[in-house]
Write a structure and sequence with these properties.
The chain is mainly α and 642 residues long. A hairpin with a 2-residue loop joins β1 and β2 (68-71). The protein starts with 17 loop residues before the first helix and ends with a helix.
């Protein structure tokens, strides 16, 4: 009899964290996920988390070996992690509780332990040669430890281990040493390793930059800058392509420092050529924090002059970057030479700052032009500065509004912001202005002043200009009688808005919305459908079938098809079959879907007054019904995959 084949050996325990592998007795090489810098920091963090408590490490879950399932505790010889005994049976300190001699997994756990006393005890093992050579990366990590005692013990130990290690071993530690440079106490470890490698190896920088962890890529950027492996254009390109904003910010700051060095170097590029990558980087729309970081770094490096800051304040696409550049310009430079460009900027905050400085620059005569700015805050600053100079904004506004050819919408609003006794009459005359925006601002200004007659908004709701109509609607949104009067206007947007306001603010009864289901404007029809809602079951079926008839407008057909579904299945099926070949693709697809659903629910032949027509339509579409079913199944499968 042939003996059975033995079960295959267990694969590496990748289903557990590195700290759990150490708890289960694995060696350092088997516990780590690899030999990269991030693998060693991951092992350190995992073991640190695994030793927050003392006691046995309980393993949960089941693993499969061949065709058999086993409890994982049957396959692992795990025990308690090392821990600190405060006192032994005789009352004296007992020290570390571990094997005699400690195993490699226990030493690794102690080196990464939450308790600094165990980390220090593990480092003292180097005195008798018990510390394994595989623990060298963990000793390097302890050289940047937050505990001073542990750092003081680790650094001599690392020096001794580096003296006996080969060049390849030390070179493999370079990425980890560069990563530790990000830590508060990591500079010593970096210099200790780089003293043996003779500088920063290019392959170590490449490994860090290719990592998936942002902190490794950050260390790679810093190392590449220190080693001279990066120029400003490459750093800006890295910031452009980097997905993590923090790493991209480090790259942008490195690019600013590299640009400064290039300018200071003998025979370096011209200032325009050196700043070209920076301006190209800032011209693209990007994360606001990244743009601000690049701008701050460039300014801190002394790259930006006043004209550069003014250029960014005027033309940068991100508001935060524009305003940061503006604040820096105002705080550290004289903005007077750039007031013309700033006063015409598209950002209202930039224009406001420029207008606020016109009087102090001796250009108070230019304030009148900014009284009609499109932004209310800019107009307010212009009025304040003009009055501080002894002028008055009201006559300017009156003169502009009295001239039909010179009046602008902003001038009308400005007159309402600084009103006088005879202004309502002037504003009333502007409600007949040939330009719609002026009429709209005039209506809004009268509303601001409380001088709008009671019946005027309903009359303005018939204005040919859309802005005037919406201004009138805002004036009557709290008046249900005026809104009902607006339902008779000739403009569909007004009827739809009035119907919506009545339903949402004033408790319109759904029956009042039924006539608007047949409104010629689709916007009104959609609002009426929403108001009627589930109450459609109370409407007569012939009315809804007539609404969904093929000859009706598209919006009415869609509303009729949706509302008839609240009636019996026979009525819903009839409306859906009538529209199964509709000219609109969306409505046609919805009708076929509703037809399939109704046919599935009907378990007997349809009778009643519409039975003959339904049977005739089913026979006409009999060949296409399987295709409709398949199309619905395809859509459902696609929806499940999403």
């Amino acid at each position: 009899m042939t003996p059975p084949e033995p079960l295959p050996p267990l694969l590496p325990t990748r289903h557990r964290s590195p700290g759990e592998r150490l708890l289960h007795g694995k060696g350092i090489a088997a516990a780590a996920d690899g030999v990269r810098a991030e693998d060693w920091t991951g092992l350190d963090q995992s073991a640190h988390l695994a030793t927050w408590w003392t006691g046995s490490a309980r393993s949960s879950g089941r693993v499969r070996v061949g065709f058999h399932w086993f409890d994982s505790r049957e396959l692992d010889a795990h025990g308690a992690p090392p821990h600190w005994h405060e006192a032994g049976p005789d009352g004296r300190p007992a020290g570390v509780a571990w094997s005699r001699p400690p195993t490699e997994s226990e030493i690794a756990l102690a080196l990464c332990h939450d308790d600094p006393r165990l980390r220090a005890a593990a480092l003292r093992l180097s005195a008798d040669g018990t510390l394994p050579a595989a623990a060298l990366p963990l000793v390097l990590l302890r050289c940047a430890d937050t505990d001073g005692t542990v750092r003081g013990l680790a650094r001599p130990v690392l020096g001794g281990m580096l003296d006996t290690a080969g060049d390849a071993t030390v070179r493999a530690l370079a990425p980890l040493a560069l990563l530790l440079d990000l830590r508060r106490h990591g500079g010593w470890a970096r210099e200790a390793v780089l003293a043996r490698t003779g500088g920063i190896p290019a392959d170590a920088v490449a490994e860090l930059l290719a990592s998936r962890r942002p902190e490794c890529r950050t260390a790679g950027v810093r190392a590449a800058e220190s080693a001279g492996l990066l120029d400003a254009a490459a750093a800006y390109a890295m910031a452009e392509s980097e997905a993590d904003v923090s790493v991209a910010g480090h790259a942008a700051r490195a690019a600013a420092r590299l640009t400064r060095r290039a300018l200071d170097a003998p025979g370096g590029p011209t200032r325009a050529a050196a700043l070209a990558p920076f301006h190209a980087f800032m011209a693209a729309r990007r994360d606001p924090d990244l743009g601000r970081a690049a701008l701050t770094a460039a300014h801190a490096s002394g790259l930006l002059r006043a004209e550069d800051l003014a250029r960014l304040a005027v033309g940068h696409p991100e508001p935060r970057a524009r305003r940061h550049a503006l604040g820096t310009l105002l705080a550290e430079h004289d903005p007077t030479p750039y007031l013309d460009a700033l006063a015409d900027a598209r950002d209202a905050a930039v224009r406001r700052a420029a207008v606020a400085r016109l009087r102090s620059a001796g250009r108070a005569g230019e304030l009148t032009r900014h009284l009609t700015d499109a932004n209310a805050s800019v107009r307010a600053v212009a009025r304040r500065e003009l009055e501080a100079d002894g002028g008055d904004a009201h006559p300017v506004y009156r003169a502009l509004c009295a001239d039909p050819a010179a009046v602008t919408p902003a001038a009308v609003t400005g007159l309402a912001e600084r009103p006088g006794p005879g202004d309502p009459a002037l504003l009333h005359s502007l409600t007949c202005h040939p330009r719609g925006p002026v009429r709209a601002r005039a209506v809004g200004a009268l509303r601001m002043l409380g001088a709008l007659p009671g019946g005027a908004p309903v009359a303005f709701a018939d204005d040919p200009d859309r802005a005037v109509r919406h201004t009138a609607l805002r004036a009557v949104r709290r008046l249900p009688d005026a809104l009902r009067a607006c339902l008779a206007t000739a403009h569909g947007d007004v009827r739809a808005a009035a119907l919506d306001l009545l339903a949402s603010r004033h408790g319109l009864d759904w029956r009042e919305a039924v006539p608007f289901l047949e409104d010629p404007d689709p916007r009104v029809t959609r609002v009426a459908r929403r108001v009627v809602g589930w109450n459609a079951s109370e409407l007569p079926l012939p009315f809804l079938l007539g609404l969904a008839a093929p000859g009706r407008p598209l919006a009415q057909r869609a509303v009729g098809l949706a509302l008839v579904g609240h009636h019996d299945d026979a009525g819903a099926l009839l409306a859906a079959l009538r529209l199964a070949d509709d000219t609109d693709p969306a409505l046609r697809g919805e009708a076929r879907l509703r037809a399939v659903r109704a046919l599935r629910r009907l378990d007997e032949e349809v009778g009643g007054p519409h039975g003959e027509e339904i049977r005739r339509l089913v026979e006409r579409h009999a060949a296409a019904l399987p295709l409709w079913y398949e199309e619905i199944r395809r859509r459902n499968r696609a929806a499940r995959r999403r």
